[in-house]
Amino acid sequence: MNRRGNREEERKDAVKKTTQFRQMLHSDHLEFLMEAHDGISAKIVEEAGFKGIWASGLCISAAMGVRDNNEASWTQVLEVVEFMSDATSIPIMLDADTGYGNFNNVRRLVRKLEQRGVAAMCIEDKLFPKTNSFIDGEQQPLAEVEEFVGKIKAAKDTQQDPDFCVVARVEAFIAGWGLGEALRRAEAYYQAGADAILIHSKIPTADQVLAFMREWGDTCPVVIVPTMYYQTPTHVFEEAGVSMVIWANHLLRAAVRAMQDIAALIYEQQALVEAERHIVSVQEIFRLQNVAELKAAEKRYLPVKAGVRELSTTL
Ligand code: SPV
Ligand code: MG
């Protein structure tokens, strides 16, 4: 690693992940979270230069081969996010769906996330079990405002680290409501202690989100997910005063395309020669796993056994 890289590492080590995330929310320019769904994708996000990670419910469940309907239990999700946290030094915001139950489940979740070094969670005002926002959104009932406010308060009262962030996700537009309902909910969630509002939209333009921003101003930081309005230039979000953009599912979608292509190629050719040109080397996997660290540790901690050749990887 070069000297600049070393300084970056030291800075990240010095500042808690929760504080890094809070600083991103309040920075004077647009910040970005990139989706990851397991340890290796989280590491790839960090190496690409991103300052934070979105632990996507859609992508974590898809990677498990199940639907985004709370089919994976909350402890299974927790286990994945723990691997992601261990593999990285940048903050993670967990997409915690509806909080996996009522206020009491949210309290327990916050305790477990803090223990695992997760910097923030986002909870959405729908009902358990949730359905992905892009599937029949208008059929999806929203939570009662008072009930969701209780969850936010419970989360804020539970957190031990003052920099742990709770982002409240407003699904009013998704469920077919208008700007008035979106603002009413956002205001109630902000008053309850939410550190930021995620305003979600599924239309192919940024119109709903921009209308929200015009009314909301700088009341508190706003997070958006432009999956469906991806054609909007990013500077439009910055000019509207958005704090954070989530690129919500693009590593999983890229991985699925790559896996489909390579599986088909190898199936067809019954040989590896052509496929090898399109995939990373086994050495690259070893590097991402940090095999070098284990080899160094073995030298330090394992007794030298006479007659045993050292296991060799060319790293
Ligand atoms: C996710 O990534 O799981 C999200 C974002 O919640 S969305 O799929 O747009 O609902
Ligand atoms: Mg989700």
What does this structure look like?
- The chain has one domain: TIM Barrel (Alpha-Beta Barrel).
- 48% of the residues lie in helices and 11% in strands.
- The chain has 14 helices and eight strands.
- Helix 3 packs across helix 5 and helix 6 runs parallel beside helix 7.
- It is globular.
- The two termini are 14 Å apart.
- Bound molecules: sulfopyruvate and magnesium ion.
- Magnesium ion binds next to helix 4.
Could you outline the blueprint of secondary structure elements for this entry?
Layout: H1 3-14, H2 17-26, E1 31-36, H3 39-48, E2 53-55, H4 57-63, H5 74-86, E3 92-95, H6 103-115, E4 120-124, H7 145-158, E5 165-170, H8 179-191, E6 196-199, H9 207-216, E7 222-224, H10 234-240, E8 244-247, H11 250-269, H12 273-276, H13 282-289, H14 291-301
Parallel strand pairs: 1-2, 1-8, 2-3, 3-4, 4-5, 5-6, 6-7, 7-8
Helix pairs in contact: 3-5, 6-7
This protein binds sulfopyruvate (SPV) and magnesium ion (MG).
Gist of the model:
By secondary structure, the protein is α/β, with parallel strands linked by helices. 48% of the residues lie in helices and 11% in strands.
